[in-house]
Every structure is written in structure tokens, then in C-alpha cells.
Amino acid sequence: MTNPDTGVLMPEAGVAGSGSASGRPEQAGGISEAGRPRPGQAGPVDAPNRPKHKKPRKRRRGRKVFARTESTAGVAAVLAAEAAPQPLPAQQPILPARPARRSDLPVFAALDLGTNNCRLLVAVPGRPGQFRVIDAFSRIVRLGEGLSASGRLSEAAMERAVGALRICAEKLRSRDIAGARLIATEACRSAANGHAFIDRVRRETGIALEIIDRKTEARLAVSGCGSLVEQGTDGVVLFDIGGGSSEIALIDIRGHRSPRLSNHIVAWTSLPVGVVSLAERFGGHDVTRESFAAMVGHVAELLAGFAGRGRLDPLMGGRFHLLGTSGTVTTLAGVHLGLERYDRRRVDGLWMDSASVDAMTEKMLGWSFQERVSNNCIGADRADLVLAGCAILQAIREVWPADRLRVADRGLREGILTELMNDHGVWRRHAQRGARPGARA
After folding, report:
1. What does the alpha-carbon distance between residue 33 and residue 46 come to, in Å, rounded to a whole number?
2. pTM higher than 0.85, yes or no?
3. CA 173 to CA 176: how far, in whole Å?
């Protein structure tokens, strides 16, 4: 049976894991082999043979106190047995901790299965327009690997994605979800076997994925980044560089600004190119300046066909900026900050000027593949993709030059959560009651 709120098939009742009721392995006689005393030596079970003038001390304040005549080996065995983590029963999922307080808050979930990543967010509403994340999951699955050449999702790629989605399904089943949206994007849209894969996911994980169109994807990206558009801004070009496609939205916010930033989109496009498909076409392992220029030129040709590209031209040079949401821009920001380990708190919302973006692109172009792998903000998972992303970014910057770029470590999932909570009226309802959902007591 499918849960109408989550889109996840619920298991039938009465299925139990194997093993004992407690889930702990049974031991003969209730004592481990390591705890058995050697012949002629007193141990923890030898109390009846102890001299009468040596009585076991009583326990005080909950401490473990043993008789003076117990062997060191016996005591160590008991302590080790108590300290060792006990195995879970078979088939018992490890459930995320539920919030200890404010259990009355509705829980919402958003899942985004893209060409490169599988991501899940679970959140409760906070102050109006905000929410608090209570669980999250992200894994690089490269579902679109080889898709540009074959037109199909490969068996290995589908296995990786299904494995990640099984984890997401357990997380969703462990909570009382008020509303959820579980989406798939370009890889499933364009693959010849994309719909067959969606059916497989439903059978094997219980998750009912929705393949969204490109216009919806662009709108959700905008909805997820609304709070990062600077006050007083007249125009923004927001872009989301994905694995198989790149969405671009032109936003005019002169005059009255609606709470929903997506209401201000005046033009949008979805380019059929992303970091995975571009790297597979031009090469992502050893990128020369010539191959990088070829990637930029290819994206520029696609942008030339965007009829609405000039809608913000009157605003250029004024109160205008770029807003990027993707692994490309967050990686650039991490390298720019010189982070030893990627830190979302320092990256999300960061401003980079045009010269800094140029410098970081030039720096990574000068690195070998191994040098990119060794950088903690790039790593092995992105080393062959990051320069393809930089090429897409460069083509965007040439069409819409801006002095500043704002980095967003957020996107479709946050857009889904924002729209779900708006549609359920949770912020309006709490505002009418004078409450602050998600606020700490």
C-alpha cells in the first residue's frame, strides 16, 4: 500500500527480524569464554568458595563493585562485555532520532534524484519562510554515466541509485510525514529506459518517483534560493548547473516583491548539457586550455538559441547579480576560501567578485587531475567534472556579465520544501496563532 503523503510503499505488518527478542546473541551459562577463571583461581561465579571473612562489597550509587577475591581477568571480561556495542536484530533499520521536543510540528520531505546525485532533506517549519532540517542524506550515484553515448541508463548506474534510494525509503518510513515530493530530473527524463527505471525503483524500494519537466525544475531552483537574493536588487540571473542539464532563470524584481521569488521569473531556459554530459563529450580527466575553450564554445552556442536572454539587459551594470546553485559554484567557493574541508556554513551565501571567479577557474585549469583529486573541496568524485562545470559557468558569465556572484549551497530540495510548506499553510497557520514553529523553548 502507498502512503499518499510520502509516495512510499508501506511494508505489510507482521514482518519481524530474525534472532532473539532483544537482538543480542545468547551465551552459554550467561558468561563469555574470556570471563572463565583458570583452574584453581577464583572468578566471578566462585562466591560460595570465598573465605567467610571476605564478603563482597555492596553496590553504591549505581557503580559496579566486585568482591575483593575476583580475578582481574574476570572483572575485565564483565566490563568488556558491558561496554561492547550489541548487534542490532537482522532487518532492523537504523532509524534517525526523532525530535525530542515540539513533536506537534508537521514533517515534510524532499528527494531529488539527479544525473549525478541522490539527495534527501527532511524538515519541520520554522519562522515564516524558513524551516529546520532534522534529517538529510546525499550520495553521488552518477545515474547518468554513459547516458550521452548510449541513450540509456546502465545497469551499474541503476544499481547505485537504487542502493541510495533504499536508504532514503527507510528514512521516510521512520517518520510521520505530512507531505513529500520525490522527484527525478534529466537522467530519467532523457533515457530511453527512464520510465522502466522508475517502475523498478517503486518495486524494489517502495519510492514512487515523479519525473518533472524542465520548467518545473527551473522554478523549484528559484524557490529554493529566494532568501539569497539581496534586498534592493532589481534583477538576478539564477542558474543551476546539474549533471545532465543546466537551468537558467531571469528574475526581474523591480517594484513590489512577492514572497514567492518564482513569481518574478520573466524568462527561463534549460540547456541539455551538464557537468557529466559535457565531461563525457570533451573529456574531464585531462583538460587542456583548448578543450576547456571548446566546452565554453559549445555551451555558448546553446545559449545563443535562448530567445529570452536579453530580458534583463536594461538592468545590467546596475543592481544586478548572478546567483549560482550547484556543485560547481560551491566547489569554487571552497577553493577560494582555502578550506581544508568543505564547510557549508561558510560557503552558502558567500559573495565572490568577478576577479575571484576568474582566479579560481584559472587555478584549477593549472592543476593536474591528481591535484584536483587531492583537494578536499573537490575530491575523487568531482575531479573529472569540476572543470566542465567551470566551462558552463564561464559561458553564462559571458552572456550576463556581473560584478558579483552569490553562491548557494541549496536548490531543488529546498524549493520543494518551501512550496510544500506554503501549500500546507503551516507558516500562515502558526502566524495566526501567534506561535513560532520550530523555535526553541
Report:
1. 16
2. no
3. 8
**206-263 pLDDT, tens per residue?**
999 999 999 999 999 999 998 898 888 999 999 999 999 999 999 999 987 887 888 9
Picking from 340-344, 380-384, 429-433, which range would have the lowest pLDDT averaged per residue?
A: 429-433
- Of the candidates 210, 198, 273, the one whose C-alpha atom is nearest the C-alpha of residue 242 is 273
Residue 161 · residue 113 · CB < 8 Å: yes
Whether the per-residue pLDDT at 30 is higher than 80: the answer is no
228-409 has the same fold as 107-214+416-433: yes
DSSP 169: H
Q: Can you name the CATH fold of 107-214+416-433?
A: Nucleotidyltransferase; domain 5 (3.30.420)
- Alpha-carbon span 109 to 121, nearest angstrom: 6
Q: State which fold the 228-409 domain adopts.
A: Nucleotidyltransferase; domain 5 (3.30.420)
Give one DSSP letter per residue of 81-146, joined into a string.
Answer: HHHSPPPPPTT---PPPPPSS-TTS-EEEEEEE-SSEEEEEEEEE-STT-EEEEEEEEEE--TTTT
CA distance 48 to 250: 85
Residue type, 136: A
